[in-house]
Amino acid sequence: MDKNTVIGFVLMALVLIGFSIYNQPSEAEIARQQQLRDSLELVRQQQEQAKQQLKAEAEKKIQEEAKDSTSLLFTATQGTAQEIALENSLVKITLNTKGGVPAKAELKNYKNQDRVTNIELFTDKDDKFSLALEGKNENILTEDLFFTPSEVTDSSAVMTLPMGSGHIDFIYTLSPDNYMLNMEIKAVGVSNYFSPNTNKLTINLHEKARQLEKGYSFENRYSSLTYKEANGGTDYLSETRDDEEQMEKPLDWVAFKNQFFSFVLIADQNLEKASLKSQQLQKNSGYLKEYTAQANTFFDPTGKQSTNLQLYFGPNHFKTLQAANELSISKKDLDMEQLVYLGWPLFRYINRWFTLYVFDWLKGLGINMGIVLLLMTLLVNLIVLYPRYKSYVSSAKMKALKPKVDEINAKYPKEEDAMRKQQEIMSMYSQYGVSPMGGCLPMLIQMPIWIALFNFVPNAIELRQQSFLWADDLSTYDDIIHWSANLPAIGNHLSIFCLLFCATNIISSWINMKQQDTGANPQMAAMKWMMYLMPIMFFFIFNDYSSGLCWYYFVSGLVSVIIMWIFKASTDDAKLLAKLERRRAERKTNPKLAGKSSFQERLQKLAEQQQEILRQQQEQQKRRGK
């Protein structure tokens, strides 16, 4: 081997060694390769575990199916969900063969906020209605079982749950031209599968109450889980916070209530040991509240007597609910019209026997609902016109006599003479035939009417989606002035009707305070500023309220301002004072006219008693000083 050959082999060896050194992986690359090998091993192990788990689940399923084949309900565990529709002119209720109960309830005459699609008051997505029975060997949970439909018509159907050699039937009948669905539960040949003391079934209800109106806060305020005690009155869980109740007394019905619509479960044989729960849901979630109800009701496994339930899917309309009462299977007075809140007993009485009749009569004229509210407001102002006039005249008399009151105040500047001063002021009022309460009593007469209408307007479903002027829906706020941000205390809009209402309220307060002529009295001056601040506070409260309610308040305030202006323009203070002076002279000459009112007599007697006590205290202090 010559020299050149040796050199060639050496160079080739050096090249190979250098190349191998150059391509040797770094420590980071070695770590990455090891991590990759570990990951591949982990994936392999997970795949092996998944195979084992699938194999175990398959074996378990085979065992369960073998076990279920001996179950009384084996046939009912097999099937495919099928929908059965019952409908009349008002509502379409869809039954599902899986569970055997209603899955949907569509109201044909009421639209969603889009004004196109019908309201679905009950949906299988947000609502759950199921029954449970305790058998000898196994429990029956209807939500997991398949029923067989039969005798299906447009308004009736029988859903049959096969159970061993017998069956349980759910018999449905939809009332014509009403929102009431009758549900009869009848056992046939299954008594041997239940204990002899079995006489109850459990009803489970659940609903996520959807926001159906534009204003979350306002709708939420009038939505509640409501119930009626058997042979008693109605009550409800809190509308503004989470609440729950364990009922000791039996119930006639439980209602999942929105502002204008309700799903009501009525039990002919009462609901016992009811557990009720209401939870608030977040704004902008599309929901208002989450309702839950669980209760027991009668069940006869022998089939001699049926379990009778009724389901109401419909509007909170007073007369519609009254008509539903007449469909009661048990002939009970269900009192379901209580779902339309009309206020406390006195105000409810006014709304029930006055407001409703006037409202229905005006609505029957076929005029716009905004005009209906206008005419109602004018009618109410006409009714209270005389008490308002008497109140104004009393205030005008007090204002005319104010200089004489100032003279008495100047006569008794000391604090210890307060009782004597008050006694002399009351005596002076008596001489002129003026009562300090004369302006208050007429106002108290008209206040119940105003409060009654405050409760009526927000619950009148007739205002829902009815437009007037710039408001597209009188049942919720008008928001043609709005923005994207949600500002504290005001939200994302300005209600023009609310602004108008507050403006007329400020003007009315200014007129009233001017009529009272508070002078330099610091307490009355503070009261004046409070009267001006109240309308501003009202704006932040009522900005989310219904435009129909704010429209009613605006018209009422405007009419009040006009009436007060007319009263003031027709009153001559000088002539009024002269009239009072003549009356004072007449009362002096005619003892029969000088009688005091019972209030004035009591007030004067009280002042005399206080004066005597003060005199005795002063004498005691003098004796101690000696």
Describe what you observe in this structure.
This protein is of the alpha+beta class. It has two domains: 267 residues, Beta-galactosidase, Chain A, domain 5 (Distorted Sandwich); 235 residues, no CATH class. 44% of the residues lie in helices and 24% in strands. It has 15 helices and 20 strands. The strands form three sheets. Strands 5, 6, 7, 8, 9, 10, 11, 12, 13, 14, 15, 16, 17 and 18 form a 14-stranded antiparallel β-sheet that branches. A four-stranded antiparallel β-sheet has the order 1-2-3-4, with no helix packed on it. It has a two-stranded antiparallel sheet with strand order 19-20. Strand 12 and strand 13 form a beta hairpin. The longest helix is centred in the N-terminal third of the chain and has 42 residues. The radius of gyration is 39 Å and the shape is elongated. The chain starts with a helix and ends with a helix. About 1% of the residues have low confidence.
